[in-house]
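Hi R.,

As promised, here are both runs. First protein below:
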Amino acid sequence: MITVNKIAVSLAVWVTICCGIVVFAITPAIANFFTIESGAKKQDDQIAANTERIKQIKAFREFSKDQGANLAKIDKLFVSAQNPLDLIDFLESAANDCGIKMEISSSSAIINEGGDTWPSFNFQMTLTGGFSRILEFVKTVETGKYLVFVPSLSISSQGSSDGGTRTFSSNDLKAIMTLTAYVNSDEKQ
Protein backbone atom coordinates (compact mmCIF):
# COMPACT_ATOMS: atom_id res chain seq x y z
CA MET A 1 0.00 0.00 0.00
CA ILE A 2 2.87 2.30 0.61
CA THR A 3 3.88 1.93 -2.98
CA VAL A 4 0.39 2.82 -4.16
CA ASN A 5 0.37 5.87 -1.88
CA LYS A 6 3.77 6.89 -3.16
CA ILE A 7 2.56 6.48 -6.73
CA ALA A 8 -0.63 8.42 -5.99
CA VAL A 9 1.28 11.22 -4.28
CA SER A 10 3.84 11.30 -7.10
CA LEU A 11 1.03 11.35 -9.65
CA ALA A 12 -0.72 14.15 -7.76
CA VAL A 13 2.49 16.17 -7.57
CA TRP A 14 3.17 15.52 -11.24
CA VAL A 15 -0.39 16.58 -12.26
CA THR A 16 -0.10 19.66 -10.03
CA ILE A 17 3.21 20.60 -11.63
CA CYS A 18 1.77 20.05 -15.12
CA CYS A 19 -1.29 22.14 -14.27
CA GLY A 20 0.97 24.84 -12.83
CA ILE A 21 3.05 24.85 -16.00
CA VAL A 22 -0.10 25.11 -18.13
CA VAL A 23 -1.62 27.84 -15.95
CA PHE A 24 1.49 29.89 -15.29
CA ALA A 25 3.56 29.35 -18.46
CA ILE A 26 1.55 28.17 -21.45
CA THR A 27 -1.66 30.21 -20.89
CA PRO A 28 0.18 33.56 -20.59
CA ALA A 29 2.26 32.66 -23.64
CA ILE A 30 -0.89 31.97 -25.66
CA ALA A 31 -2.54 35.17 -24.36
CA ASN A 32 0.62 37.10 -25.23
CA PHE A 33 0.55 35.59 -28.72
CA PHE A 34 -3.02 36.81 -29.28
CA THR A 35 -2.10 40.25 -27.91
CA ILE A 36 0.85 40.45 -30.28
CA GLU A 37 -1.34 39.29 -33.15
CA SER A 38 -4.01 41.95 -32.47
CA GLY A 39 -1.27 44.60 -32.11
CA ALA A 40 0.21 43.48 -35.42
CA LYS A 41 -3.26 43.77 -37.01
CA LYS A 42 -3.59 47.35 -35.70
CA GLN A 43 -0.15 48.19 -37.06
CA ASP A 44 -1.08 46.70 -40.43
CA ASP A 45 -4.21 48.87 -40.47
CA GLN A 46 -2.15 51.96 -39.60
CA ILE A 47 0.38 51.17 -42.30
CA ALA A 48 -2.42 50.79 -44.84
CA ALA A 49 -3.98 54.10 -43.74
CA ASN A 50 -0.61 55.89 -43.87
CA THR A 51 0.07 54.43 -47.31
CA GLU A 52 -3.25 55.82 -48.49
CA ARG A 53 -2.43 59.24 -46.98
CA ILE A 54 0.93 59.24 -48.74
CA LYS A 55 -0.80 58.49 -52.06
CA GLN A 56 -3.24 61.36 -51.47
CA ILE A 57 -0.42 63.77 -50.59
CA LYS A 58 1.50 62.80 -53.72
CA ALA A 59 -1.64 63.24 -55.83
CA PHE A 60 -2.22 66.67 -54.27
CA ARG A 61 1.38 67.69 -54.98
CA GLU A 62 0.95 66.69 -58.61
CA PHE A 63 -2.33 68.59 -58.77
CA SER A 64 -0.63 71.64 -57.23
CA LYS A 65 2.14 71.52 -59.82
CA ASP A 66 -0.36 71.15 -62.65
CA GLN A 67 -2.70 73.85 -61.36
CA GLY A 68 -0.09 76.27 -59.97
CA ALA A 69 -0.85 78.96 -62.55
CA ASN A 70 -4.58 78.75 -61.86
CA LEU A 71 -4.01 78.91 -58.10
CA ALA A 72 -1.87 82.01 -58.60
CA LYS A 73 -4.72 83.60 -60.57
CA ILE A 74 -7.13 82.81 -57.73
CA ASP A 75 -4.79 84.48 -55.22
CA LYS A 76 -4.89 87.66 -57.30
CA LEU A 77 -8.68 87.85 -56.90
CA PHE A 78 -8.35 88.77 -53.23
CA VAL A 79 -7.57 92.23 -51.90
CA SER A 80 -4.37 92.63 -49.95
CA ALA A 81 -5.12 93.14 -46.27
CA GLN A 82 -1.89 95.11 -45.94
CA ASN A 83 -2.49 97.39 -48.92
CA PRO A 84 -6.13 97.86 -49.99
CA LEU A 85 -5.13 100.98 -51.96
CA ASP A 86 -4.84 98.86 -55.11
CA LEU A 87 -8.58 98.18 -54.85
CA ILE A 88 -9.34 101.88 -54.32
CA ASP A 89 -7.20 102.75 -57.36
CA PHE A 90 -9.13 100.15 -59.36
CA LEU A 91 -12.46 101.65 -58.22
CA GLU A 92 -11.37 105.20 -59.09
CA SER A 93 -10.10 104.08 -62.48
CA ALA A 94 -13.38 102.25 -63.20
CA ALA A 95 -15.37 105.33 -62.17
CA ASN A 96 -13.32 107.55 -64.50
CA ASP A 97 -13.67 105.05 -67.36
CA CYS A 98 -17.45 104.94 -66.87
CA GLY A 99 -17.74 108.73 -66.64
CA ILE A 100 -19.17 108.96 -63.12
CA LYS A 101 -18.11 110.68 -59.93
CA MET A 102 -17.30 108.40 -56.98
CA GLU A 103 -16.75 109.18 -53.31
CA ILE A 104 -15.94 106.56 -50.70
CA SER A 105 -17.72 107.70 -47.57
CA SER A 106 -16.79 104.90 -45.16
CA SER A 107 -14.98 101.62 -44.96
CA SER A 108 -14.69 98.88 -42.39
CA ALA A 109 -12.72 95.68 -42.10
CA ILE A 110 -14.34 92.42 -41.12
CA ILE A 111 -11.59 90.08 -39.98
CA ASN A 112 -13.27 86.88 -38.90
CA GLU A 113 -10.72 84.46 -37.46
CA GLY A 114 -12.05 80.93 -37.71
CA GLY A 115 -15.62 82.01 -38.43
CA ASP A 116 -18.08 81.12 -41.14
CA THR A 117 -17.36 84.15 -43.33
CA TRP A 118 -14.25 85.20 -45.16
CA PRO A 119 -12.34 88.26 -44.01
CA SER A 120 -13.41 91.29 -46.04
CA PHE A 121 -13.48 95.06 -46.37
CA ASN A 122 -16.81 96.84 -46.68
CA PHE A 123 -16.94 100.14 -48.53
CA GLN A 124 -19.87 102.52 -48.77
CA MET A 125 -19.61 104.86 -51.70
CA THR A 126 -21.64 107.58 -53.34
CA LEU A 127 -21.85 107.57 -57.13
CA THR A 128 -23.11 110.47 -59.24
CA GLY A 129 -23.90 110.17 -62.93
CA GLY A 130 -26.30 108.75 -65.47
CA PHE A 131 -28.24 105.55 -64.90
CA SER A 132 -26.53 103.56 -67.64
CA ARG A 133 -23.10 104.78 -66.54
CA ILE A 134 -23.76 103.81 -62.91
CA LEU A 135 -24.87 100.34 -64.02
CA GLU A 136 -21.82 100.09 -66.27
CA PHE A 137 -19.63 100.94 -63.25
CA VAL A 138 -21.31 98.26 -61.11
CA LYS A 139 -20.85 95.70 -63.88
CA THR A 140 -17.19 96.73 -64.34
CA VAL A 141 -16.51 96.38 -60.61
CA GLU A 142 -18.30 93.03 -60.27
CA THR A 143 -16.52 91.54 -63.30
CA GLY A 144 -13.19 93.21 -62.52
CA LYS A 145 -9.99 91.73 -61.23
CA TYR A 146 -11.06 91.45 -57.57
CA LEU A 147 -13.52 89.15 -55.82
CA VAL A 148 -16.21 91.63 -54.74
CA PHE A 149 -19.89 91.57 -53.92
CA VAL A 150 -22.42 94.41 -54.11
CA PRO A 151 -24.97 93.70 -51.36
CA SER A 152 -26.87 96.96 -51.83
CA LEU A 153 -27.34 99.70 -54.41
CA SER A 154 -29.76 102.55 -53.87
CA ILE A 155 -30.38 104.99 -56.74
CA SER A 156 -32.23 108.29 -56.40
CA SER A 157 -32.63 111.42 -58.50
CA GLN A 158 -31.23 114.76 -57.46
CA GLY A 159 -32.99 117.14 -59.85
CA SER A 160 -33.04 120.89 -59.32
CA SER A 161 -36.27 122.81 -58.80
CA ASP A 162 -36.94 126.17 -60.44
CA GLY A 163 -40.00 127.84 -58.92
CA GLY A 164 -42.06 124.71 -58.44
CA THR A 165 -41.01 122.73 -61.50
CA ARG A 166 -38.40 120.07 -61.24
CA THR A 167 -35.93 119.49 -64.03
CA PHE A 168 -33.84 116.40 -64.50
CA SER A 169 -30.78 115.75 -66.56
CA SER A 170 -29.24 112.42 -67.46
CA ASN A 171 -26.46 112.99 -64.91
CA ASP A 172 -28.77 113.81 -62.00
CA LEU A 173 -28.74 110.40 -60.38
CA LYS A 174 -27.14 109.67 -57.06
CA ALA A 175 -26.41 106.09 -56.06
CA ILE A 176 -25.31 104.81 -52.68
CA MET A 177 -23.55 101.49 -53.07
CA THR A 178 -22.13 99.08 -50.52
CA LEU A 179 -19.23 96.98 -51.76
CA THR A 180 -17.73 93.95 -50.01
CA ALA A 181 -14.18 93.06 -51.11
CA TYR A 182 -12.76 89.77 -49.89
CA VAL A 183 -9.31 89.73 -48.31
CA ASN A 184 -6.52 87.20 -48.70
CA SER A 185 -6.65 85.49 -45.30
CA ASP A 186 -3.23 83.84 -45.74
CA GLU A 187 -1.36 87.17 -45.58
CA LYS A 188 0.74 87.83 -42.52
CA GLN A 189 -0.44 90.88 -40.64
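And here is the second one, sequence first, then its C-alpha coordinates:
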Amino acid sequence: MSYDSFCADIAKLYPITGSLSEGAPPAPLGMKQRIPATATGFTHGFVVTATGALAGSARFDSSNAYDAAIHSSFGLGANDGEQMWILVANTTGSVIARGEAVTFGVAADPYKVTDAGADPAFLVGVAQFEIPNNKAAYVLAKGVGKALSGAAITINTPLKLNGSARLADAGAGDAVVAHSLSGSGGAGVLIDAVILGTI
Protein backbone atom coordinates (compact mmCIF):
# COMPACT_ATOMS: atom_id res chain seq x y z
CA MET A 1 0.00 0.00 0.00
CA SER A 2 1.40 3.38 -0.94
CA TYR A 3 1.75 6.15 1.61
CA ASP A 4 -0.91 8.21 -0.20
CA SER A 5 -3.47 5.41 -0.16
CA PHE A 6 -2.71 4.72 3.50
CA CYS A 7 -3.47 8.36 4.23
CA ALA A 8 -6.58 8.38 2.05
CA ASP A 9 -8.22 5.74 4.26
CA ILE A 10 -8.22 8.18 7.18
CA ALA A 11 -9.97 11.00 5.33
CA LYS A 12 -13.10 9.04 4.46
CA LEU A 13 -16.59 8.35 5.77
CA TYR A 14 -17.78 4.72 5.84
CA PRO A 15 -21.14 3.00 6.29
CA ILE A 16 -21.21 1.27 9.67
CA THR A 17 -22.19 -2.10 8.17
CA GLY A 18 -21.67 -3.87 4.86
CA SER A 19 -18.91 -5.62 2.96
CA LEU A 20 -15.67 -4.03 1.80
CA SER A 21 -17.09 -3.99 -1.74
CA GLU A 22 -19.94 -1.83 -0.37
CA GLY A 23 -17.52 0.62 1.17
CA ALA A 24 -17.61 -0.62 4.76
CA PRO A 25 -14.74 0.32 7.08
CA PRO A 26 -11.40 -1.27 6.14
CA ALA A 27 -10.75 -2.17 9.78
CA PRO A 28 -12.70 -2.96 12.95
CA LEU A 29 -13.92 -0.07 15.08
CA GLY A 30 -11.18 0.96 17.49
CA MET A 31 -8.39 0.36 14.95
CA LYS A 32 -5.57 2.92 15.22
CA GLN A 33 -3.63 4.49 12.33
CA ARG A 34 -0.47 6.51 12.74
CA ILE A 35 0.57 9.40 10.50
CA PRO A 36 4.35 9.83 10.89
CA ALA A 37 6.00 13.12 11.69
CA THR A 38 6.90 15.20 8.66
CA ALA A 39 10.01 16.99 7.53
CA THR A 40 10.30 20.70 6.80
CA GLY A 41 8.23 21.65 3.75
CA PHE A 42 5.86 18.69 3.92
CA THR A 43 2.35 18.91 5.35
CA HIS A 44 -0.85 16.89 5.46
CA GLY A 45 -4.45 17.95 5.16
CA PHE A 46 -7.66 17.30 3.29
CA VAL A 47 -10.44 19.30 1.71
CA VAL A 48 -13.09 20.46 4.18
CA THR A 49 -16.03 22.69 3.20
CA ALA A 50 -16.91 25.91 5.00
CA THR A 51 -19.41 23.99 7.16
CA GLY A 52 -16.80 21.46 8.25
CA ALA A 53 -17.97 18.59 6.04
CA LEU A 54 -15.62 16.54 3.90
CA ALA A 55 -15.62 17.62 0.27
CA GLY A 56 -16.41 15.01 -2.36
CA SER A 57 -12.78 14.53 -3.32
CA ALA A 58 -11.50 14.49 0.25
CA ARG A 59 -8.32 12.57 0.87
CA PHE A 60 -5.14 13.08 2.75
CA ASP A 61 -2.44 14.69 0.69
CA SER A 62 1.29 14.35 1.29
CA SER A 63 3.29 16.69 -0.86
CA ASN A 64 5.74 19.56 -0.68
CA ALA A 65 3.24 21.85 -2.40
CA TYR A 66 0.62 22.11 0.34
CA ASP A 67 -1.85 24.86 -0.52
CA ALA A 68 -3.76 26.28 2.44
CA ALA A 69 -6.26 27.87 0.04
CA ILE A 70 -7.22 24.40 -1.17
CA HIS A 71 -6.67 22.22 1.89
CA SER A 72 -7.75 22.70 5.46
CA SER A 73 -4.89 24.04 7.56
CA PHE A 74 -5.59 21.85 10.57
CA GLY A 75 -3.40 18.98 9.38
CA LEU A 76 -0.02 17.88 10.51
CA GLY A 77 2.44 20.61 9.60
CA ALA A 78 6.19 20.55 9.23
CA ASN A 79 7.94 19.31 12.37
CA ASP A 80 4.69 19.07 14.37
CA GLY A 81 5.22 15.44 15.32
CA GLU A 82 3.05 12.44 14.55
CA GLN A 83 -0.71 12.01 14.70
CA MET A 84 -2.65 8.98 15.96
CA TRP A 85 -6.13 8.38 14.54
CA ILE A 86 -8.77 5.87 15.67
CA LEU A 87 -11.77 4.48 13.79
CA VAL A 88 -15.13 5.13 15.48
CA ALA A 89 -18.82 5.04 14.59
CA ASN A 90 -21.35 7.84 15.07
CA THR A 91 -24.70 6.40 16.21
CA THR A 92 -25.67 9.43 18.30
CA GLY A 93 -28.61 10.35 16.06
CA SER A 94 -27.01 13.63 15.02
CA VAL A 95 -23.93 14.99 13.26
CA ILE A 96 -20.66 15.13 15.18
CA ALA A 97 -19.25 18.55 14.27
CA ARG A 98 -15.68 19.25 13.28
CA GLY A 99 -13.67 19.94 16.43
CA GLU A 100 -16.02 18.12 18.84
CA ALA A 101 -14.50 15.70 21.34
CA VAL A 102 -16.00 12.20 21.54
CA THR A 103 -16.00 9.61 24.31
CA PHE A 104 -16.48 5.86 24.58
CA GLY A 105 -20.01 4.52 24.16
CA VAL A 106 -21.59 1.68 26.12
CA ALA A 107 -19.48 -1.27 27.25
CA ALA A 108 -20.82 -3.55 24.51
CA ASP A 109 -19.86 -1.08 21.74
CA PRO A 110 -17.22 1.26 23.15
CA TYR A 111 -16.20 2.71 19.76
CA LYS A 112 -19.76 3.72 18.91
CA VAL A 113 -18.94 7.07 20.42
CA THR A 114 -20.94 9.85 22.07
CA ASP A 115 -20.29 13.56 22.55
CA ALA A 116 -17.68 14.03 25.26
CA GLY A 117 -18.71 14.73 28.81
CA ALA A 118 -16.37 16.13 31.42
CA ASP A 119 -14.58 12.89 32.35
CA PRO A 120 -11.26 12.71 30.47
CA ALA A 121 -10.91 8.99 31.22
CA PHE A 122 -13.52 8.31 28.53
CA LEU A 123 -12.03 10.56 25.82
CA VAL A 124 -11.43 8.78 22.49
CA GLY A 125 -10.45 11.75 20.32
CA VAL A 126 -11.53 14.88 18.47
CA ALA A 127 -13.36 14.92 15.11
CA GLN A 128 -11.32 16.71 12.44
CA PHE A 129 -14.22 16.76 9.99
CA GLU A 130 -17.98 16.48 10.26
CA ILE A 131 -19.18 12.88 10.86
CA PRO A 132 -22.84 12.27 9.88
CA ASN A 133 -25.02 9.95 11.93
CA ASN A 134 -24.63 6.24 11.13
CA LYS A 135 -21.19 6.70 9.57
CA ALA A 136 -17.81 5.40 10.68
CA ALA A 137 -14.74 7.64 10.43
CA TYR A 138 -11.35 8.29 11.99
CA VAL A 139 -11.00 10.85 14.78
CA LEU A 140 -7.74 12.38 15.99
CA ALA A 141 -6.73 10.59 19.19
CA LYS A 142 -3.34 12.25 19.62
CA GLY A 143 -1.35 15.00 17.94
CA VAL A 144 -1.78 18.48 16.44
CA GLY A 145 -5.26 19.29 15.12
CA LYS A 146 -8.36 21.42 15.56
CA ALA A 147 -10.75 21.53 18.52
CA LEU A 148 -13.86 23.56 19.33
CA SER A 149 -13.64 26.03 22.19
CA GLY A 150 -16.28 25.84 24.90
CA ALA A 151 -15.33 29.29 26.23
CA ALA A 152 -12.59 31.86 25.69
CA ILE A 153 -9.28 30.02 25.26
CA THR A 154 -5.89 31.37 26.28
CA ILE A 155 -3.06 30.59 23.87
CA ASN A 156 -0.36 28.19 25.12
CA THR A 157 -2.52 26.88 27.96
CA PRO A 158 -3.51 23.40 29.22
CA LEU A 159 -7.08 22.48 28.25
CA LYS A 160 -9.81 20.34 29.80
CA LEU A 161 -13.13 18.92 28.59
CA ASN A 162 -15.96 21.34 29.36
CA GLY A 163 -18.75 18.73 29.52
CA SER A 164 -20.26 19.71 26.16
CA ALA A 165 -17.85 18.06 23.69
CA ARG A 166 -15.63 21.15 23.69
CA LEU A 167 -12.43 22.31 25.38
CA ALA A 168 -11.81 25.04 27.93
CA ASP A 169 -8.83 26.43 29.85
CA ALA A 170 -7.88 24.00 32.62
CA GLY A 171 -7.54 25.21 36.18
CA ALA A 172 -5.78 23.83 39.23
CA GLY A 173 -6.75 20.21 39.75
CA ASP A 174 -8.39 19.77 36.32
CA ALA A 175 -7.41 16.79 34.19
CA VAL A 176 -5.57 18.10 31.12
CA VAL A 177 -6.49 16.55 27.73
CA ALA A 178 -4.91 19.05 25.30
CA HIS A 179 -2.69 22.12 25.01
CA SER A 180 -3.76 25.23 23.08
CA LEU A 181 -1.64 26.49 20.17
CA SER A 182 -4.03 29.34 19.43
CA GLY A 183 -6.64 31.22 21.44
CA SER A 184 -10.27 32.27 21.04
CA GLY A 185 -12.44 35.10 22.30
CA GLY A 186 -15.36 32.83 23.12
CA ALA A 187 -17.15 29.53 22.55
CA GLY A 188 -17.63 27.75 19.24
CA VAL A 189 -14.28 28.71 17.68
CA LEU A 190 -11.96 26.16 16.04
CA ILE A 191 -8.59 26.46 17.73
CA ASP A 192 -5.25 24.78 17.07
CA ALA A 193 -4.36 22.33 19.81
CA VAL A 194 -2.16 19.40 20.68
CA ILE A 195 -4.47 16.53 21.68
CA LEU A 196 -2.55 14.64 24.34
CA GLY A 197 -4.34 11.33 23.94
CA THR A 198 -5.74 9.06 26.64
CA ILE A 199 -5.76 5.70 24.80
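A quick note on the second one: Helices lie at 3-10. Let me know what you think.

Best,
J.
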